[in-house]
Fold this protein.
Amino acid sequence: MTKAAKRKFFIQGAVLTAVSLFLRVTNMGYRAYLSQKIGSAGMGLYQLILSVFLLAVTLSTSGISLAVTRMVSAAIATERRETLRSLVARCFAFCLSLSLGIALLLFFTADFAAAAFLGNPQAAPCLRILGIGLPFMSLCTCMKGYFLAVDESLSTAASDTLEQILTICATILLFWKFTPQGIEAACMAAMAASTLGEAVSFLTSWWAYRRSLRRHTPARREKSRGVLHGLAHIALPCTLSSAARSLLNTGENLLIPRQLQAYGMGYQASLSQYGLLQGMAMPMLYFPSSFLASFASLLIPQIARERELDHKRAVAYISGKAVRSALAYGMFFAVLFAVFGDDWGRAFYHSESAGAYLQVLSPIVPLIYLDVVVDSLLKGLDEQLNSMKYNFADSFLRVTLVLLLLSRLGMESYVGILFFSTIFNAALSLRRLMKVSALRLSLWTHVALPLAWAVACVLLGEWAMARLALESPFLLIGLETFFCGGLFAAGYGFICRWEKKRMEGKG
């Protein structure tokens, strides 16, 4: 990678990270607002509705962005820009046909899905409202793949930001104007606002896409060949994988409250426990991964180009640097959550229970964050079929264990299932990446040293924060994160430089 390319990569990554951080912060604030309005039981129903809808989203969008990114990147790398218009237009036609069919299916089966899967027939209108947004989401996914390939990810970031702001403002307006009675009506208001946001996001992306085409395509046009083959080769495995995993995840999410009821909990109590974990604790746990997700998305076209040109050393270098950074980043936040998780729960949800879940789950944070990066690298290296197998096996095991354990051992067993599942998936994915990219890791340099330094930084931060006696929970977690994070970044930079000199000395 040239210096100019590196500079552009990091500038885009930094901007995307800032946008992603903004989106995560506002989403956390949005969920906190909803939790105050509808409680943990309402958050449980909200999350269950989204779980069912996610299956429809997966069928409409999964693999499309990756397929478009890979095909557009290949066309640019091989100097075939005159085919770009035709290529993306055919992908649009495929996306629109597929998403409209699935939206109609969701519309006509909403009553059955709400009664049979959610156990709440009054939630059917929520599914119908969400279905209206499926074509917009599918077409936006297609454009996202194009923007990634032509290094214009900021267009996607702008439309995502507008969608988030509009969704939150519309939700607050609906709650203020109509004051929905009951958790079902409240969920309906939130879903209507979400669909409005998706429609506006599509219009924004379409405007940016039309302008981009004029910059990146010549006046001469040619028909693109092999688009359906490319979609079948790249998108189909991802779609099958994601659909199977989404189906299993939806089943898992629907089973959790039911199995908790079989364990002895009431309906409201089971929804409340589910809402605490999946609606509150898990979003906090994934929140810092916004930094990694931004750079990971940029890695797909970058590593796809290097693979297309058979630059094996570049593939190994990019993979190694990305994996090592993800591991270090994850270990820092694992220690931070273990020590300060209760502060995060109080800051976002005024809930010590949500913070307790965050502390319990903190040991698997490095593997969760690592998987974000490894998944992107495998997709860029044409390993989506293996990724499909690992994800399916992981989801199948989780559903099986939920069925076997949750009704007997309660919510504690589900935490154990999350640990097993995360370790299982990360081990398989990392092993495959190491095989196809010649990646090498040192247990001492890349795991033990960053972990020890993270522990030292966070413990020092705990000592310092105890002497400030701050009352604002948001100010407290902000200072904790930036103080400890600054120390960790400085020390980790030193570790990286030491490792580089050591390797140069060996060479």
User: Anything to note?
Assistant: The chain has one domain: 3-441. The chain is about 90% helix and 0% strand.
